[in-house]
Amino acid sequence: MQATDTRVQRREPLIQLMKDLKDSGKNCASCTGVCCTFVGNSMQITVLEAFDLYQFLEKEGRWKQGLMERLKENISMFRLDRPVPGDGRRNLARRRYTCPFFKDTALGCSIDPMYKPYGCLGFNALGSDVQDGENCSSRIPVLEAREGSYDSELSDNESLRERYGISWTKTSIPQALLEIAEHFKPAVN
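The chain above was modelled as a monomer; its predicted structure follows.
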């Protein structure tokens, strides 16, 4: 599958934002990474983002049985495969979970920015010397502008969903990766 808008193009505005913030002293260098843990993370990704991430893991030789087991444990531990309780009305709540790629350190993500989910790239420090996620936020206007800039992204996502019979539009990182892998039948070590 080759998206019309490339993986790099789709992430470029968010990566540039991160560089600009870093140049102005606003970055995650001294933070514990709480945004990647169950305290602050409820990241959901599209099929296209999952496909990009899966390709990275395959390319790096990281798609192995141990990783698949860790993803399954993550789903079970944080009950990601169960609906969030609600009162019967529309509920947009999502389960929180620790990202399976978080390394428990500042700047602790083990995923190359060129393959990261958009929401991860768009969640940034708002000030300098952030220690424990106390001054961070999603840059919604930048994320929305990015989304509106790539005409083929919506159709690429829909095409992948139809082609592989995927029912969800967005889901958690571990769930998305395991489902994508089912369709590509990776060689697992």
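The radius of gyration is 17 Å.
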